[in-house]
Amino acid sequence: MKKILLSCLCIALCGTYVFAQDLGINEAIKMYNEAAGALNSQEYAKALENAKQALEIIKTLDAEEAGELKGDIENLIPKISFGEARQLVVDKEYEKALVALQEASKAAELYNDANIKSSIAELLPQVMMGHANALLSTDKYAEAVEEYQKILAAEPNNETVYLRIGQAQSRLNNEAEAIAAFEKASELGSPEAEKQLGTVYLKKAAAASKDKNYKDALTNAQKTLEYDATNATAIKLLASAAVQLKNWDVAIPNLEKIIPSEKNPDNFIYNLAMAYDAKGNKAKACENFKKIVGNATFKAYAEAKVKELCN
User: Fold this and answer.
1) pLDDT at residue 9 greater than cutoff 60
2) In which domain, by residue range, is 74 found?
3) Who contacts 36 (Cβ-Cβ below 8 Å, separation ≥6)?
4) Which of 66, 169, 231, 280 makes the best surface tag, with the fewest CB within 10 Å?
């Protein structure tokens, strides 16, 4: 009788185990389906929570019975993290997207998902650039430089990154760093970098001219024109500095470039006449002094020079 009771007890316990297994599998399947549905509706937090709960249930079950479902859940988790990252990129939430990509990378490594690894490798540079650009556009220049430098570690010949670093450094008033970055971008083929270099040197020329440092004004105006050959402001600064330095060979051609487009060119004509006079070109000096005899400011001197040079 005792043996019969033991046998009945064994049957009852085994039946309870099978029933528990069925409940566990069904609950895990339910959680998996909810995770998949949440992923399709872009509810990533809910999808990840359900997938992880399903995986925890699976760990308590018989390995043979749960094996296929376990693999499906493990395949789903990296896709959820990557889907979240991709949506954050669409929403331009680049900083959050970088965090989501890190999580997706960990999941892809843990569950050996080669496709997700490849997708992350393709998307990551775009996210990093988007994040750095967002920092630049919101005036977080130092932070932007730091992020651009991270991109260069993987893409050392990215001309756009050097251009953006130059812009950020310029706004931080880090002149040498800005010039170095723009020059590198220019070497790599960026036409925009050349314009930026022209702007940097133009500012230097203007500042030097304001301080009456005509030598530096001339040098930086010439550098500006190397990158922006028709910049009218640079030509004026160059001509004015050359006049102050009595560098007539530089002054004359640049004054002649300025005069035709000026509404009130008499000051420039006066300087041109003086330059030709200093060079000993009486005919050209006479020609230009004649043009300003009607200007009250120059009348007396111009008339005297015309009388001296034109007879």
Assistant:
1) no
2) 28-60+70-123
3) 47, 76
4) 280
